Amino acid sequence: MSQPATIWVLADDRAGNVGQCLGVAEALGRPFVVKAIGYDRWGRLPNLLRRASLLGVDGASRAGLVPPWPDLVIAAGRRTAPVARWIKRQCGARLVQIMDPGPGGRADFALIAVPRHDGGTCGDNVFAVTGAPHRVTDAKLAEAAALWRDRFAALPRPWVAAIVGGDTRKRPFTAPMAADLGRRCTALAAGGSVLVTTSRRTSAAAEQALLQAIPEPRFVHRWAAGGDNPYFALLGLADAIVVTGDSVSMACEACAAPAPVYLYAPDGWVVNKHARLHAELYAQGFARPLPAVGEGGGEATAHPPLNAAAAVAAAIERILP
Predict the structure, then answer these.
(1) CA 298, CA 160: separation in Å to the nearest integer?
(2) What's the whole-number mean pLDDT along residues 40-51?
(3) Does residue 3 carry a pLDDT above 70?
(4) Record's superkingdom (predicted)?
């Protein structure tokens, strides 16, 4: 009987990328080893210069990249691609890269999992998915729901979860926008309760405007205040979920939950890439735009969970020994 494949996950300083890799590795259901990748000053060089090498990788990380070598490497983002290609040179491992690894060396990868909304990457080894891989599973949502259900028990239903992001590099999430979001969530709850969780990017001004627009009864978790975050519990327990459209991961994780999902993304707020994702989610029935107060537009409906990690894992199974 052949031995099970040895799997390495390359984990660098991009937490979002690492989460996608871990989501895929966990969906595979096979043992894996996480290899931390840190960079030195040369790590900013373009991949066309770094090629298949450890140029730009710090000494501590190099020390961990030693035999026994893996059969499969899962990584994400452009900066890990030269490292994955170097590992392949040592042992012939199959390489899976989440998102386009960039120019030069794409043929070294057995599978390149690319979100459709990124666009532009094509080839026989390219596997297109809806959204981004994540770590949300039915089991994780059920576990979180069991821990938090009693804390929300006194609040009238329906429960509308408001998953709130904030400013991005190119687009601010202003206080008037936050107030508008609060009013729309309150209208959607229609006598029920809004359950709010903010994020690292939610400014103090936006948070204040949001909460002023959401009356009691409600539940609020402020990211800045710390404490236990009910994020996964809200996804598991809510009767409807509202998520701001500034984050690909938040939108995709919300669509992994069973409840109807609404996206808040006023015209001109999100970048084109995010707008393409939203259009795809609407077209496939995973979400609906959040209507303005007093405006129709159709109700979001329950849907199968969106799980790009499982789709990528299934594609990997087809290339493993």
Answers:
(1) 16
(2) 95
(3) no
(4) Bacteria
Which tokens in the block code for residue 113?
Answer: 């999992």
Per residue in 231-275, pLDDT tens?
Answer: 999 999 999 999 999 999 999 999 999 999 999 999 999 999 999
**Number of structural domains, the chain?**
2
pTM attached to this predicted model: 0.91
- Token pair belonging to 63: 């020390």
**HSE, side-chain direction, 13 A CA sphere, residue 171:** 17
Domain range for 69 is: 7-135+309-317
pLDDT confidence of residue 1: 35
The predicted-structure confidence for 138-191, as pLDDT tens digits, reads as follows 999 999 999 999 999 999 999 999 999 999 888 999 999 999 999 999 999 999
Q: What is the CATH number of the domain that holds 277?
A: 3.40.50.2000
144 and 285 share one domain: yes
So what's the pLDDT on residue 80?
Answer: 97
Q: Is the same domain home to 162 and 194?
A: yes
48/68 Cα distance (integer angstroms): 28
Helix (H, G, I), strand (E, B) or coil at 51: coil
Q: Residue 53 corresponds to which tokens in the numbers above?
A: 């090498």
User: Which amino acid belongs to residue 199?
Assistant: S
Number of residues that make up the chain: 321
- Rounded (10°) CA dihedral 106, 111, 114, 119: 50
**Residue in the structure block whose two tokens are 């392949």:** 88
Tokens describing residue 120: 């532009």
> Residue 289 is inside which H or E element, if any?
strand 288-289
What pLDDT score was predicted for residue 297? 62
Residues 63 and 187 in one domain: no
Please give the Cα distance from 54 to 100 (Å, whole number).
19
105 and 47 assigned to the same domain: yes
Q: What is the token pair recorded at 43?
A: 């790590």
Cross-strand partners of 169: none
Looking at the fold, whether 160 and 285 belong to one and the same domain comes out as: yes
Q: Are 182 and 211 in contact (CB under 8 A)?
A: yes
* Domain annotation covers residue 268: yes
